[in-house]
Amino acid sequence: MSARAPISLLKLALLTVLLVCSAIGAMTGAAAAVDETAILAKKPPAKLSAFGFFADASRQVPAEGVIPFAPRTPLFTDFAEKRRFVYVPEGESAVYDAHEAFAFPVGSALIKTFAYEAADRPGGLRLVETRVLLRQEKGWQAWAYVWNEDQSEAELKIAGAKIPMTVPIPGGGTQDIVYAVPNKAQCKGCHALDGEVVPIGPKARNLNHVFPYRQGEENQLAHWAEAGMLTGLPDLADVPAVPDWLDETAPLDKRARAWLDINCAHCHRAEGPASNSGLFLTWDEKEPAALGIGKRPVAAGRGAGHLKVDIEPGDPDASILVYRVESNEPGVMMPELGRSLTDSRAVALLREWVASME
Amino acid sequence: MMLKLSAGVLAIACVVIAGAAVAAEVRLSPADGTEKLVETLIMAEEGDTILLGPGRWNIADGLVLDADGVTIRGAGAEETVLSFKGQTGSGEGLLVTSDGVVLEDFAVEDTKGDGIKSKGSDRITFRNLRVEWTNGPDEKNGAYGVYPVSSTNVLIEGVTVRGASDAGIYVGQSQDIIVRNNLAEYNVAGIEIENCYRADVYGNMARHNTGGILIFDLPNLPQQGGHDIRVFDNDSVDNDTPNFAPEGNIVGSVPMGTGIMVMANRNVHIFGNRLSGNGTVHVIVAAYPNDYEDENYMFVPRGVYVHDNTYGEGGDAPDGEMGELIAERTGTPVPDIVWDGVTRIPEWLTWVSAENRIYVKEEEGTTFANAKMISHMILPWETKADRDIANYEGSLPEPQPVKLPQDAEG
Description:
The structure holds two protein chains of two kinds. Chain A is α+β, with helices and mostly antiparallel strands. Chain A contains eight helices and 16 strands. Chain A folds into two domains: 32-238, no CATH class; 252-355, no CATH class. Helix content of chain A is 22%, strand content 23%. In chain A, the strands form six sheets. A six-stranded antiparallel beta sheet of chain A has the order 3-4-6-7-8-9, covered by helices on one side. A two-stranded antiparallel sheet of chain A has the order 1-2. In chain A, helix 6 packs across helix 8. Chain A is globular, with a radius of gyration of 23 Å. Chain B has five helices and 33 strands. Chain B has helices at residues 2-22, 34-43, 320-330, 345-349, 373-378; strands at residues 25-28, 49-52, 55-58, 63-65, 71-73, 80-83, 92-96, 102-104, 107-109, 114-119, 122-127, 130-132, 144-149, 152-157, 160-162, 167-172, 175-180, 183-185, 189-194, 197-202, 205-207, 211-216, 227-232, 235-237, 258-263, 266-271, 274-276, 281-286, 302-307, 310-311, 337-339, 358-361, 368-370. Chain B has a domain at 133-392.
């Protein structure tokens, strides 16, 4: 017994040192700092907290140096609320691009939490998962972390997860769904450009609008440039911008194209996973046949739903594109991943858009 | 001396250990659970072999393999079954996006979309697999069974596909392809090669499909202008399943009882095949029939050589719109070989150059018709189909056999 005493003493001393250190850390703000070794590690940490992205994770309050952002028009994922953050290592910066996602320096991270409104939870949000994109030497790595019941921690799920839950629907009511957390390989199903994992959201046209920062409203691109996170930003008047797809004062064509760009074009482009379809839906696409107008399906199978062309101008009911966005049946619905519900607002917008074509 | 030797042994031991660490062999059985299988595929590293033991996996979501040089090997196409009956997400059962992958000796059943797809893969091998929709022909079945697309060096052999609502074996927008010794039955199309460069299709059995073997080229796609295709030594027989493709798909227009169909493409050689029991037509060569907007697309077949095939019963029950159209021009029974006779208008007014013509050389007694569709449209009462096979005498130089880096037989 007595032989063990010195070890216990040693432990106690060590613990004291650790406690003191962490107390000092907390005072200087270092405890809420991002751990870049976790971002760069070959194996991802088992717990989200290891990255240090949040000062208060359950309320989605970011750590210092982690900046919230939002795209003008978002991807639909079963009406989930999203909280997005970007981290760029101190003294480094992303490089502006007018068309593609910005080129981020090694050590950067993009963080996206999926949540639903819930009055009984901290911050009024039920957190479901947080996905991280980590910029390493060899390229981007994508991982998903699933939140525990009391929202104190999120754990790595390499194989993804299926979570049965009841979610609120905009305009009232709820819906029972099986929420699908993507596995690592499925991440690449959308985040692939010429076979490499890339971010989708942080493109100039999506970020070129005002965001309500804690210190006041400001254009996101201007904010990033001022913070030293972004170089090469031209005059804002020369930066492309998509409209908010729900903004009814914006031109119909632009609203529909903004929606297609963020919901479809990561796959449906010449360099994307659906390149073989020949249906290209990027914001910059000009070719009517590539946009689906009068274009016959190639490998749609029953996804074609007895219809002959992707878009039949003036006739949404004869347009495969509308049919597949409206469907929620695996093998038919588009996008293939990321949703089990239909966004009736998107269907209405696309219907109106196709109907308006001559 | 002794020291040197042990250092050498140590070095060898290190190499062996390192080698083992690089190319791991992972054994899985259904008892390990689906999550373990999903994780193993995701975490697979270059050169790994994943062995799937006998039994049934019930899989709710699509599988993805993105690591190079990985082999997935089951215990046999009847023994190791990946069932997707309860699938709730993804467009296919298994998706491969990496190079040098071998898939062999397992089955994929009842996927909601396509069975096994490879996208952008180099040196992809599908061997002794079974991909099946177990409920039989149904328009709700997935489109393609084995589905390499935008891939290079594609080998498909010893595979059985049943019940695909588009094509059992479908190779799209790919280059350097061998499809041999497969069984395709009860699909809309048994085997379809679409917008491909250099393909050898041989030794296959295509039976009880709507159409046996289709060689197509379509407009508005990243890779088009399919060319250098050899279809030889296949059996395309008793293709008697009514077309169950969802409307809107190009195969939806293929009539029941089509043996081999060539639509558009350049330099296609059809020879030594055995055709019988195809109620509409054994061999048909035709232009792309729909409107399109694509100035780079060639809608008529260029240079097709049909020779030394054997023909049994057939052509006695032309099916559907296309079957009716053919029968109207040729009468019933429909001849063994039919060309729609469509050329580009300048060529119709003048001539088609030698390398772009359709040539036929078959045993005496083989029947043939050029339906002369353009002349018929312009002068409907004046034009008869040309049934004189001797007018199509000649030949084309055959493409070199396709060679694949992963093919020991090649």
